[in-house]
Amino acid sequence: MMLEGKAGLVTGAADGIGRAAALVYAREGASVVVNDLESRRSDAEETVRLITKAGGNATFVPADVTMASEVEGLVAACAEAYGSVDFAFNNAGVLATGFTADVEEADFDRIVAVDLKGVWLCMKYELLHMKAHGGGAIVNTSSEGGLVGTPLAGPYVATKHAVIGLTRTAAGEYANMNIRINAVAPGTIATPMVLGLPQEGQDMLMAPQPLNRLGRPEEVAEAVVWLSSDRASFITGTVLSVDGGATSNAQSYDPSLSPSA
Prior knowledge:
Blueprint: E1 7-10, H1 16-27, E2 31-36, H2 41-53, E3 57-62, H3 68-82, E4 87-90, H4 105-132, E5 136-141, H5 154-174, E6 179-186, H6 192-195, H7 199-206, H8 217-228, E7 239-242
Helix pairs in contact: 1-2, 1-8, 3-4, 4-5
């Protein structure tokens, strides 16, 4: 029960890593605000149902992380429902694939809005609350692609690098306010985002991982919740890779992903 009596929020919690993290937070004694878009209500409410079925405490609060007013409302809703915002897992993200020159501008803008601006907006209102209420812990979702290049995912990779920059900068800024800020960098995990890719795409992403399998959302969730707990009390500004060893070695290179003109 690492987080008994604590409360916080998880964005992008309708499925995948976000759902897994919400379940582990609740297992460890926390009350959890499950967040996703209103259009994902049925899946997000399934996350809540799974938590309450296991004896935990959770509620769904819809919000679009690209909208400042909705994010501010999300943080306020957590504080109103449970009395505090002791932790936050900023996990919502989207992906579009294609060679850098072939990505549509609308896709680029959407990825930046959700994966970068969304994380910043969440941090903004979480930090404002936490510094006024004695501190807390924030974990952001970066990616293996935030540490290395990944073919066919340029905008996504750019935002995930930027999330690490935000994490490290804010960690230094708020360290003396009893707020810890870290990031996780998942490798290729069996989430709907990855499982929705063609098999050759999944194989390409998994190839650099020495453990030679897809990771499980629960394996990332365990790291996230530990970073949110007092067991990680001397850790801030860190990026924890949960990637099956992928970034411990040079990435596999496929010449077919660098076509001739």
